Amino acid sequence: xxxxxxxxxxxxxxxxxxxxxxxxxxxxxxxxxxxxxxxxxxxxxxxxxxxxxxxxxxxxxxxxxxxxxxxxxxxxxxxxxxxxxxxxxxxxxxxxxxxxxxxxxxxxxxxxxxxxxxxxxxxxxxxxxxxxxxxxxxxxxxxxxxxxxxxxxxxxxxxxxxxxxxxxxxxxxxxxxxxxxxxxxxxxxxxxxxxxxxxxxxxxxxxxxx
Length: 210
Hints:
Largest sheet: 4 strands, mixed
Number of helices: 8
Structural class: alpha+beta
Helix content: 40-55%
């Protein structure tokens, strides 16, 4: 594992997507510095932040010791997890078959599990007008995705076999299952996995990043 001398700058706010990266950095044990992006105040639209995150979404990082020793910025949580996994050769296996399994479940999260649960949060909790159709639609899809997750975790201890960035990406959303209208009593494999991942000390530190 390469040594990181200068801290990685993490542009972050304590949300499921932000926690993915603070958890990974804690798991790696590399130095990092949090740069808060207060999404409630609109910090994500600041011109300086848009230079590194043109989609005006956190998280993003700047690694001052990037490829060739030159700084590099990375936006989008999945891309950041892959970048860090490749650089430090941890939680993202080099073996092509094992890496493909991680990529499958990572992209499942960033393309479906996260966005759909985000819609559940919005319509069940934050929307001023409660729209039954929207609540039912996204809660039903959340239930389907959780059942996919439970089936997979009945086959393997972690999503890609060994603990990886795919688990880090999913756990930050799954920890809010109650708010999403999901009862883990019917999802024993998810319940077992969630308890195990949340018990990791690095995960706990990442969730508490301030």
